[in-house]
Amino acid sequence: MLGLMQNQPLLISSLIEFAERHHGDTEIVSRRVEGDIHRYTYTDVAHRSRQVANALDSIKLQFSDRVATLAWNGYRHLELYFGVSGSGRVLHTINPRLHPEQIAWIANHAEDQVMCFDMTFLPIIQAVHSKCSTVKHWIALCDADKLPTDTGIPGLQSYESWMGQQSSSYNWPEFDENSASSMCYTSGTTGNPKAALYSHRSTILHAYAAALPDVMCLSARDSVLPVVPMFHVNAWGIPYSAALTGCKLVFPGPALDGKSIYELIEAERVTYAAGVPTIWQMLLGHMKPGGLKFGSLKRTVIGGSACPPAMIAAFREEYGVEVLHAWGMTEMSPLGTLCTLKNKHLQLPEAEQMKIRLKQGRAIYGVDMKIVNDEGKELPWDGKAYGDLLVKGPWILREYFKGEGGNPLVDGWFPTGDVATIDADGYMQITDRSKDVIKSGGEWISSIDIENIAVAHPAVAMAACIGVKHPKWDERPIIAVVKKPGAEVTREELLAFYEGKTAKWQVPDDVVFVDAIPLGATGKMLKTRLRDVLKDYKLPGI
């Protein structure tokens, strides 16, 4: 016997319809590429999203055709989020930090029909447009009077001219909620980038889960700053969760330096922010010398890579901001876990609470996870046993777009490529990427733990731990360090800093000072490239 409830598909268009009806006067604030601040409301987003849908109809774009974006976080990008997916097309956000050759390859593989881009990225578009064989329409996200006349891109239109002449009346179509809504390519796989293809259903469920109190805890009382890019797994789903809850959105545009972020937080009374550790390093680096404080910021979600304990402590102790450690992947839409304390933890001493906060957190509803050994046997949740982390759930990838890479699942579970522990309370902690873990004398060493200790030193800005070959121990860890501007620390001082903080056999054998640590397109450290840089390195005494 079936239930007797109405059968309404879960579609992204319903999010902006809800936001317009119930939170129509709530502000969306954007720092534009031009440098000025733009303000409007959810009502305006809804009107202009419908204009986008009409514009796509006018160029005869078919259902499920791909519309690419090469854009910062801003109001026009938000309109494309709803106008493209809501009308049944697929939004394809491209990471502009990739090499132009990769961008062209991705656009061709996705068979993008339309490319919308911020003027910042005009040089990239000029470099790749002749190589993007499927793109028929080039749209610059700017006013008509800001469009140069000599770009060399045939048929280039300004966004405002393209969609501005369209009607704001549009009946959002109804279709199968399992239809594709958006796609993101990940470079965290072997070979060419592969695309995760999200559905309307998976996106809505993820938006619901992300807004829960034990996750991002978003509400209509929040002013939210997503510093995580809208081209990076759909800004962790925040644009969708924001429309679902009616919170104010504040977009930073291209200005991601510490000073610009701080000024935006203060001016717009931001209560909640989300981003990767490298962004918050710049923010804290701007604040500390001037003795600056936050007037409104209450909490921040930090993900993308492990958050150093020193950063969590600085936010909490110096600025009164709660740090929520998060973990996920492009293949997971992206949220998998988020670290919030349980009721029984609230009376623990601060040091014990900190041990919990350093973990990546508990699985949110919709995500199941387990750890297994090399033979695939499930390991206990005791916080000590570590193994390969596998996940499954309604917003987790089943296969990549066009079947690239074959079937990635293992008995229905997606292998994350992370090595982790899970404790009795369900808190998961990443000990390493499987390709980065260091095996020394038959024992595993977590590169993340070694890095966290180094970054806690007041003279260290960034640190990356890698393993190097050793004739007796197989591998030994070394730490590559970038010093803070004007700061000094010696190899001996830094190695002495490890005393009492980890087992002696886990202390790095050496410190290598470098000018910079290679970062990927999403701000993660590229240890493969660091290994290439240090390929001629020899351990002392070997």
Walkthrough of the structure:
The protein is 28% helix and 25% strand. The protein has 542 residues and is an alpha/beta fold. Among the domains are: 10-25 and 39-200, Rossmann fold (3-Layer(aba) Sandwich), CATH 3.40.50.12780; 439-533, GMP Synthetase, Chain A, domain 3 (2-Layer Sandwich), CATH 3.30.300. Helix 4 packs across helix 5 (122-128) and helix 7 crosses helix 9 (238-245).
Summarize the structure.
This protein is of the alpha/beta class and 542 residues long. It is built from 16 helices and 25 strands.
* Superfamily (CATH H level) name of the domain at 10-25 and 39-200: ANL, N-terminal domain
What gap, in angstroms, lies between the N and C termini? 73 Å
CATH level-3 fold name of the domain at 10-25 and 39-200: Rossmann fold
Described by the principal axes of the CA atoms, the overall outline is globular
Count of DSSP-assigned helices: 16
Second CATH tier, the architecture of the domain at 10-25 and 39-200 = 3-Layer(aba) Sandwich
The CATH class of the domain at 10-25 and 39-200, by name, is Alpha Beta
In total, the number of strands is: 25
Q: What's the layout of helices and strands?
A:
Layout: H1 13-23, E1 27-31, E2 37-41, H2 42-58, E3 66-70, H3 75-86, E4 90-93, H4 100-110, E5 112-117, H5 122-128, E6 137-140, E7 157-158, H6 159-164, E8 180-186, E9 194-199, H7 200-210, E10 223-226, H8 233-236, H9 238-245, E11 248-251, H10 258-267, E12 272-275, H11 277-290, E13 299-302, H12 309-319, E14 322-328, E15 335-338, H13 350-357, E16 361-363, E17 368-372, E18 386-392, E19 414-422, E20 427-433, E21 438-440, E22 443-445, H14 447-455, E23 460-470, E24 474-483, H15 491-497, E25 510-513, H16 527-533
Parallel strand pairs: 1-11, 3-4, 3-5, 4-8, 5-6, 6-7, 10-11, 10-12, 12-13, 13-14, 24-25
Antiparallel strand pairs: 1-2, 8-9, 14-15, 15-16, 16-20, 17-18, 18-19, 19-20, 21-22, 23-24
